[in-house]
Specification:
By secondary structure, the chain is of the alpha+beta class. The chain has a single domain, classed as Nuclear Transport Factor 2, Chain: A (Roll). The chain is built from 5 helices and 5 strands. Strands 1, 2, 3, 4 and 5 form a 5-stranded antiparallel β-sheet that branches. It is globular, with a radius of gyration of 17 Å. It starts with a helix and ends with a helix.
Length: 138
């Protein structure tokens, strides 16, 4: 019985890691597009099946990308499950002049993982969860 329980726990962990890895690969590809080609290809790489969300993100992010100076990189600051099917990502994109903060929810549907419309801001207070701000002393 204990062996069966241990097997089930390990299997669930591997399945969860597989879902996270798939999403992380998609984020890596999207950020490679941002670095090489700009906001439009980045948005289209994230929102493959949602051109309206891609256009909204490109409209919000485009001016910030063009005025931010050189692209430095990005960090996933937080990945938190909201429900059994929805995960929330908080991402910081670093430019020479300022960081840009992104909040993206991803949804596991029958057709695979879908990213829901993103929220973009230069103000960390509008994107980061309150508990993160308390830890960092903001």
């Amino acid at each position: 019985m204990r062996k069966l329980l241990a097997f089930l726990v390990l299997t669930a962990g591997f399945v969860a890691c597989g879902h996270a890895q798939q999403t992380d690969n998609r984020l890596d590809f999207a950020f490679a597009q941002l670095k090489s080609n700009g906001a439009g290809p980045f948005a289209r790489a994230l929102f493959v099946s949602n051109p309206t969300a891609a256009q909204q993100l490109e409209t919000q992010l485009g001016p910030l990308v063009s005025n931010g100076g050189g692209y430095i990189g990005y960090d996933v600051l937080s990945r938190k499950p909201l429900t059994s099917r929805i995960d929330r990502y908080i991402v910081a994109i670093y430019y020479e002049k300022y960081p840009v903060f992104l909040r993206i929810d991803s949804y596991r549907s029958s057709e695979g993982r879908l990213f829901l419309p993103a929220i973009v801001s230069l103000d960390a207070d509008k994107i980061l969860p309150a508990e993160t701000l308390e830890v960092t002393g903001r």
